[in-house]
């Protein structure tokens, strides 16, 4: 993995506390941070974690900037000692209107063009403010932070990591990652025991590839571990996987397959080998029978049309040699090769099972538990506790999984400042629930 920013990689653009995930598609790529447009042309071949100054580009668009790498950043904290010389006792006599600022809007715009840094602009605003000295010290610091946020002209380009991607997704829309907060994601990784040795089975739907990306990251590069990533659709969600810029060697050890397609492939292959079927009873059908019955129903539905066509063309005997020849010469599709590779791993069984599904997970648990070795962890995530309680009772009665527990993380950020330490007022109350246990023979 290169330490330099390259065209084609995903990067994280950080401006103060705001972060944005962006693909550096080509040298003309422009990233939008609010109303500002920033060209990434001069970031190519620069080391990650480099700080760049925003340089206004000449032209009509005053919000278009280019990047200039810098060594040190003039931070607002250095100005606090210079600008906060005296403070008031309270803010009762302060009138919050535009008359307190001696500079007009036109003069402030001219300042932004003339001054070399945001610190100079903020210094001029403080000098011409009639109410700054009368504010309390806390109000003065809030004023400086607000102006810093508005006039701050530095960005940092960082390498994508699981933590950064999880935070970006969570801040934009938590529903796009099924409400999986980073602390919950770390619990899933910890309970499942994902490492560089073993084979792991993951069913995921609705997290934009965040979970498989976290698993591949935990497996690491140049290891023996393999991951089978099952999903319900035709194409797996891989945005987070692509954003991590993994090596091809790591991506090859992650096999993404459709759940129903690979189960059908597995049981049909077992049927072809003349595996002795279980004695039929009046009990509910097994997972294998359900998969094969669904496949046979589809084949029977299409069979009438096929027989009609065959009768018009002279019968199936006339077409059989031609069909055999086409099958022999036809190349297998990529999804067929992935199914075959996943089936081989399913025969050897897995060292952990993790399920994060928008659907009710019990049928998925029932279908995938036979492919997990004994004494291996099982982790199921859901946003609703009642659904996991149903799975808990069913697994408890079936006696396939022991040491079942349902847990929920409750994380709250704290503001740690002198004389004003308190929890954040706005926070997420819940990040879903985890059902964990261990398989038994």
What is the fold's blueprint, element by element?
Layout: E1 10-15, E2 18-23, E3 30-33, E4 36-39, E5 50-56, E6 64-70, H1 77-83, H2 105-114, H3 118-127, H4 137-151, E7 154-158, H5 162-172, H6 182-192, E8 199-204, H7 210-219, E9 226-231, H8 239-243, H9 248-252, E10 254-258, H10 259-272, H11 287-312, H12 316-329, H13 334-348, E11 352-356, H14 362-368, E12 377-382, H15 385-398, E13 401-407, E14 414-415, E15 422-423, E16 433-439
Parallel strand pairs: 4-6, 8-9, 8-11, 9-10, 11-12
Antiparallel strand pairs: 1-2, 1-7, 3-4, 5-6, 5-7, 12-16, 13-16, 14-15
Helix pairs in contact: 3-4, 10-11, 10-13
Summary of the model, kept short:
With 441 residues, this protein is α/β, with parallel strands linked by helices. 39% of the residues lie in helices and 19% in strands. Mean pLDDT is 82; it is low at 277-283 and 297-313.
């Amino acid at each position: 993995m290169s330490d330099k920013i390259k065209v084609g990689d995903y990067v994280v653009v950080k401006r103060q506390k705001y972060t944005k995930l962006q693909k550096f598609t080509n040298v003309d790529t422009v990233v939008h941070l609010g109303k500002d447009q920033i060209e990434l042309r001069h970031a190519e071949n620069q080391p990650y974690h480099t700080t760049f100054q925003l340089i206004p580009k000449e032209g009509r668009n005053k919000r278009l900037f280019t990047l200039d790498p810098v060594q040190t950043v003039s931070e607002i904290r250095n100005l606090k000692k210079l600008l906060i010389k005296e403070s008031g006792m309270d803010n009762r006599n302060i009138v919050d209107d535009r008359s307190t600022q001696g500079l007009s809007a036109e003069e402030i715009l001219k300042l932004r063009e003339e001054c070399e840094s945001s610190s100079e602009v903020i210094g001029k605003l403080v000098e011409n403010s009639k109410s700054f000295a009368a504010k309390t010290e806390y109000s003065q610091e809030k004023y400086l932070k607000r102006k810093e946020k508005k006039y701050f002209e530095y960005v940092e380009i960082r390498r994508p990591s699981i933590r950064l991607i999880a935070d970006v997704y969570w801040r934009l829309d938590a529903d796009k990652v099924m409400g999986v907060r980073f602390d919950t994601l770390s619990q899933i990784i910890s309970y499942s025991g994902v490492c560089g040795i073993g084979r792991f089975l993951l069913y995921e739907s609705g997290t934009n590839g965040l979970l498989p990306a976290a698993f591949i990251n935990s497996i690491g590069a140049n290891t023996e571990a393999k991951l089978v990533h099952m999903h319900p659709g035709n194409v797996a969600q891989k945005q987070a996987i692509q954003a991590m810029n993994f090596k091809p060697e790591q991506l090859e050890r992650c096999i993404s397959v459709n759940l129903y397609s690979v189960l059908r492939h597995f049981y049909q292959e077992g049927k072809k080998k003349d595996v002795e079927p279980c004695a039929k009873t009046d009990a509910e059908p097994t997972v294998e029978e359900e998969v094969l019955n669904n496949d046979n129903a589809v084949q029977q539905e299409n069979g009438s049309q096929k027989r009609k066509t065959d009768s018009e063309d002279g019968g199936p005997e006339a077409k059989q040699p031609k069909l055999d020849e086409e099958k022999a010469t036809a190349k297998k599709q990529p999804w067929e090769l992935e199914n075959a590779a996943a089936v081989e791993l399913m025969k050897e069984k897995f060292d952990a099972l993790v399920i994060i599904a928008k659907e009710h997970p019990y049928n998925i648990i029932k279908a995938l538990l036979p492919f997990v070795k004994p004494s291996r962890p099982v982790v199921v995530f859901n946003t609703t506790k009642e659904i996991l309680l149903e799975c808990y009772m069913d697994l408890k009665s079936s006696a396939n999984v022991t040491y079942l527990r349902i847990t929920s993380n409750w994380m709250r950020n704290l503001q740690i400042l002198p004389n004003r330490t308190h929890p954040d007022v706005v926070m997420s109350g819940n990040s879903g629930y985890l059902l964990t246990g261990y398989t038994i023979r």
